[in-house]
Amino acid sequence: MTSLIVLIFSELDHSYHLVNSYPINFVIWLLLL
How far does CA 10 lie from the centroid of its chain? Predict the structure, then answer.
């Protein structure tokens, strides 16, 4: 389960890193929890 969360977070991090929107990334990650 933890590995899955880390994987999802990594995917989101890569996606939003391109847009350079870490605050948005963090909010979306919290919503997924």
Answer: 6
Neighbours of 32 (CB within 10 A): 10
**CA-to-CA separations, 24 to 1, 8, 13, in angstroms, rounded:** 23, 15, 10
Per-residue confidence of the chain (33 residues) as pLDDT tens digits? Answer: 688 888 887 877 766 555 555 677 677 778 887
- Are 19 and 28 in contact, with CB atoms under 8 Å apart? no
- Report the domain count for the chain: 1
pTM: 0.37
- Which range of residues forms the domain containing residue 28? 2-32
User: Can you tell me whether residue 18 is helix, strand or coil?
Assistant: helix
